[in-house]
Design goal:
Layout: H1 15-39, H2 45-61, H3 70-90, H4 94-112, H5 118-128, H6 131-136, H7 142-160, H8 188-198, H9 206-223, E1 235-237, E2 246-252, E3 261-269, E4 279-283, H10 284-290, E5 293-298, E6 301-304
Antiparallel strand pairs: 1-2, 1-5, 2-3, 3-4, 5-6
């Protein structure tokens, strides 16, 4: 812990992961260099390749990081290049155009949801590239920037694909199966173990994971239904994903004090089909523990009550 303030990685990745990162980065940049030498105007190659080198570190060393995914890589560089070219054309003084290019590129990436740190270098390259880049104008976005990006991303996808744990983009990594039961409480050792098992570099600390887990658990507890919330004619979802997702509608719930049972019918997800829908009897307490939130039917989806249409976990029936 004496080096905590230096930010030294606490859970280093495996030796295989490190060597794969090196090999992938070398192959990606080899193709980028070849394209830059062939397509880029004389004098512009070093500046363009420098920002691609930074992207290669993210794509091959942190392939599952949010900043490494295809849209941040493509959008971050292209938006930053457009901003940089605009500043170079509108402002003659590099001392002013350079800082404005980087600042406005950061702003543009924020709003376009494609934050990619090497994009700042691309914006600066468009300003400091001299006559070779100025002569290209907005064609700079296509050649060499877009050509180099497509080459880097192609190598990222193809090189990482044979290794299931580091396939790129991150959406290609098969999710681990989740248990249907309630998850147990986690501590720092559990999260540290999980980080080691993943193998590839994850740009998050175990402290951040603990804080995220604590906030998520608190939110889940605050949103959990109570027994009194279970009412006849209302529908509830367990809020899970994939094949475990389900919606149950309460058919009847007697109000007699000595009868705590409710009758429900599964109308969507697990336990539901066109020919047969599961019907059962369960106590209010058990249904409240099973349910994540109340849902309502909207056309072909189920939307959590009290949430915006795009903010829930509804699924097509």
């Amino acid at each position: 812990m004496r080096f905590r303030w230096l930010g030294i990685e606490q859970h280093p990745s495996s030796h295989l992961e490190r060597w794969l990162s090196m090999a992938g980065g070398a192959l990606g940049i080899a193709l980028v260099v070849a394209l830059a030498m062939w397509l880029a105007p004389a004098g512009a190659e070093p500046l363009v390749m420098a920002s691609m080198g930074a992207s290669a570190v993210l794509v091959f060393a942190v392939p599952h990081g949010a900043l490494s995914q295809p849209w941040p890589v493509l959008g971050g560089h292209l938006l930053s290049a457009a901003v940089g070219v605009s500043m170079a054309q509108w402002i003659a003084a590099p001392m002013l155009a350079g800082p404005l290019a980087v600042g406005l590129a950061i702003l543009a990436m924020h709003y376009a949801r494609c934050i990619h740190p090497p994009g700042g270098a691309t914006a600066l390259a468009a300003v400091l590239g001299g006559a070779a880049v100025r002569d290209l104008g907005y064609g700079f976005l296509l050649v060499p920037v877009l050509a180099n990006l497509l080459a880097l991303l192609a190598v990222g996808v193809l090189f990482n694909y044979p290794f299931p744990w580091r396939r790129y983009p991150a959406a290609l990594v098969a999710p681990e199966p989740t248990a249907a039961s309630e998850p147990p409480a986690l501590d720092r050792d559990d999260l540290a173990y999980a980080l080691r098992q993943i193998g590839s570099f994850i740009d998050v600390s175990d402290e951040d994971l603990l804080r995220i887990y604590a906030l998520a658990t608190r939110h889940a507890d605050e949103q959990r239904l109570r027994e009194a919330d279970i009412q006849p004619g209302h529908c509830y979802s367990n809020g899970r994903f994939g094949p475990e997702w389900s919606v149950r509608c309460v058919v009847d719930a007697p109000e007699a004090p000595d009868n705590d049972l409710v009758i429900y019918r599964t109308v969507a997800g697990a336990g539901s089909s066109r020919s047969r829908r599961e019907t059962g009897t369960i106590s209010r307490a058990e249904l409240a523990r099973w349910a994540r939130y109340e849902v309502v039917r909207e056309e072909t989806t189920w939307r959590p009550v009290g949430r915006a249409p795009d903010g829930g976990a509804g699924s097509a029936a």
